[in-house]
Automatic annotation (TrEMBL):
UniProt source species: Ornithinimicrobium avium
Pfam families: DUF3238
Name assigned to this protein: DUF3238 domain-containing protein
The keyword Signal belongs to this UniProt entry's keyword annotation: yes
Endpoints of the signal sequence: 1-32
Keywords of this entry: Signal
Amino acid sequence: MEVSRNARFVAWISAVVVSAASALTTLPVAFAASNIDVAFDSNGALVVSENGVSLQMTVMEESDNTLVISTGSTSSGALVESVVYLVPDPDPAPTAPTMTSGDYTDGVVAFTEEPDVVTPDQYGEEFYSPAEYDSETLIPLVGEVSTGAEVIIVSGVLPVGGDGGGGGGGTLPVEPPVVEVFKDGQHAGALDAKGTFRDNDVVPSHSYTYELVGEDGAVIVQAGAYQSQAVTSGALRNDRIWFNYKTFIPNERVSVFSGSVCRPWWTVGKIYFAGDDRSWSATSSRYRTRAQVKADFTSSSRGVYLNKWVSSTKRYKDATSTKVVASATASSKNIKLSNVKMGTSSASYRLKHDVANPLCYAAGGIWYQVDATVWRNGTASFYGHHLLAPNHEAYVVGSQGGSYQTVARRALRSFVCLNVDCGTGAWSKSFSKSVA
């Protein structure tokens, strides 16, 4: 995670995102809560370590002015998710935070009366300037880490400038009961001297809501407006995740000019092809092409598999006739997988597609490319490009009995785009623990 990028994305919070982590395998007894440590570094990045070794965390989501979600795996194969977010500003407009001087007890982090700023006196008055917005102003952060065994909450600060600000960031040491922790509305304890709170009283498949409350009663993490909803192991554990991509012609029939593009080349005027006569649908069996990628996480058949189908192309006699005068099926050889990486917790791959009308000897192919990463816990990200014909639709579903979720829907611009450079469409879609 780039420090400056992390800083800017964390700077302002305006949304709530559910944090959920799942164990990908049955956790061994050796996987104890004490193995995982969490702390903010001087740049406001959340560092998660196991037995003193930092875990490699992959950024899953960065929401404008909201948060950063990252995932990683322990040595035992358990998924670890971290969420970093800013303490909410009571003013809905993104105004610059200010810090005020005051009487602070040595060694104790003091919260201002409004829960948008925290001032650690141990950093000295030179690190804050009243009513100024500079690189040395400290923004309070809250981090949350969910594992299969516990939920860990940690407090921290980030220099507004995002470049370290002279070492002004990091995890805030505190003295209980400066920040009290409430779990599902019940008092659960306080941040310890290292600025962290550990909750080992968790049950798989259960969700918990945590609130952090300042010493003066100010809610640092506000219930309702800003919550941390942590889910422990068992919430989602897909054995398989399917990604389906279909291209289709929404019309009952379509016309193209004959001659240099479509047979018969000696004719004049238009020729007509059968369409799929439908709208968007995750389950329709009418399509031009269909590609299905299955990420299988079971130990007996772990891998990424591609199934592909191409429907026959039919040419009608004329604009109104139902008589089929020609029919052919294009090859599926150019529907391919590449860049496949398969692990116990995630799979990534590139799906590439280029299939042309077999009755149009010079027609360009229906082209698209998708880069995908799916996690067994229901998190997924997709990024695609496509030519602007025909309709394109993509869906994802897991093995937990959930329904298809829409990844992309892109409507036809013109069939001319198969032969003329109309550019390509680009799209992206991500899911956080919701593919089931």
